[in-house]
Amino acid sequence: MDASERHVPVMLERVVALLAPALAQPGAVLVDATLGLGGHSEAFLQQFPDIRLIGLDRDPAALRLAGERLAPYEDRTTFVKAVYDELPEVLEDLGVPAINGILFDLGVSSMQLDEADRGFAYAQDAPLDMRMDSTGPTTAADILNTYSSADLARILFQYGEEKFSRRIADRIVREREAEPFTNSARLSELVRDSIPQAARRTGGHPAKRTFQALRIEVNGELEVLRRALPNALRSLALHGRIVVMSYQSLEDRIAKQTLAAGTKTDVPDDLPVIPAGHEPYLQILTRGAERPTEEELAANPRAASVRVRAAERVRVKGMVVR
Ligand SMILES: C[S@@+](CC[C@H](N)C(=O)[O-])C[C@H]1O[C@@H](n2cnc3c(N)ncnc32)[C@H](O)[C@@H]1O
């Protein structure tokens, strides 16, 4: 299977429409912060023949596949292996002072989920790895075999919103004494057995929340996103636009709060006028979080949990726009 067959880009038309006004002028720079299999990027390169695309991914396998798919656009594309909070350094290295659009399509790619041996999928037995970049220092097995029960419970509760986090964490610590964790099937079974019968029937696969929590911890996903979004906003040129597609509520909350902060002024409420330089610098383009249409949901199950937020930079403010 090649890259284009494996992945249907989520909310493609809407994402293109949201970024389009920022990409109208020749030479506009679009950053795809989560290149994945290059599905969104391909559509932008096709529809905007004058843009330059910078594609980032922390997963070398994704960069390789996207590179093959986007080879026809070689003269307008640059691919960089980077974690997306490294954007300022990447732009500096490339000598790009400001960008016109940026897309974050968060989470794992369909390729990462489909490759069972990377351990992202709870439904298949595989080594408990879950690193998006397989040169990263910590695997899911390392976390399960070394964290204290309290730390495991905290992760499961905060990142997985798992109600039975303490029970699961205690059981992990008990069972690893007998034998360290290596594979996902044993963990899935443990989670199922730790949850009361009645709770097993709701909320999807019982291990889903635990796997999500481990993946977030392995890849430091939320801290990276918290740093990355303000960096991205700082890099936007005037009238540049950002689109963030989240697949779980913790990411969406970070996106919502970061974008909302840019629409507020930092002067006290009782000041009659907002002094120059203190005006809000962002305008939100989406009403709440946008969701896919019924048709898309029927055709593309991977779109089921997506929430899309977008904003435009409307002022340079005191921030450095080079
Ligand atoms: C949902 S996929 C993107 C799919 C892409 N929009 C497409 O149409 O093919 C998300 C990608 O982002 C990458 N990724 C996730 N977190 C990242 C981070 N912090 N820095 C860089 N890449 C990241 C993953 O490795 C994955 O390839």
How would you summarize the topology of this molecule?
Layout: H1 3-6, H2 12-19, E1 29-32, H3 39-47, E2 52-57, H4 60-69, E3 77-81, H5 87-94, E4 99-105, H6 110-114, H7 140-146, H8 149-160, H9 165-178, H10 184-194, H11 197-200, H12 208-219, H13 221-235, E5 236-246, H14 249-261, E6 282-284, H15 294-299, E7 307-313
Parallel strand pairs: 1-2, 1-4, 2-3, 4-5
Antiparallel strand pairs: 5-7, 6-7
The structure holds S-adenosylmethionine.
S-adenosylmethionine binds next to α3 and β2.
State the distance separating the first and last CA atoms.
43 Å
Record field, number of beta strands: 7
* Rounded mean pLDDT score: 92
The description of the largest β-sheet is: 7 strands, mixed
The count of domains is 2
Strands ordered across the widest β-sheet: 3-2-1-4-5-7-6
| SSE string | HHEHEHEHEHHHHHHHHEHEHE
Q: Uncertain runs with pLDDT below 50, 5 residues or more?
A: 1-5, 318-322
Overall spatial form = globular
SS class: alpha/beta
Quaternary class: single chain
What gyration radius follows from the Cα positions, in whole Å? Answer: 21 Å
The residue fraction in helices comes out at 40-55%
- The CATH superfamily of the largest domain turns out to be Vaccinia Virus protein VP39
CATH architecture of the largest domain: 3-Layer(aba) Sandwich
By CATH, the topology of the largest domain is Rossmann fold
Quickly count the helices. 15
- Proportion in β-strands: 5-15%
* Main CATH class of the largest domain: Alpha Beta
Question: Which molecules other than protein and nucleic acid are bound?
Answer: S-adenosylmethionine
Family: Belongs to the methyltransferase superfamily. RsmH family.
Main location: cytoplasm
Function: Specifically methylates the N4 position of cytidine in position 1402 (C1402) of 16S rRNA.
Subcellular location: Cytoplasm
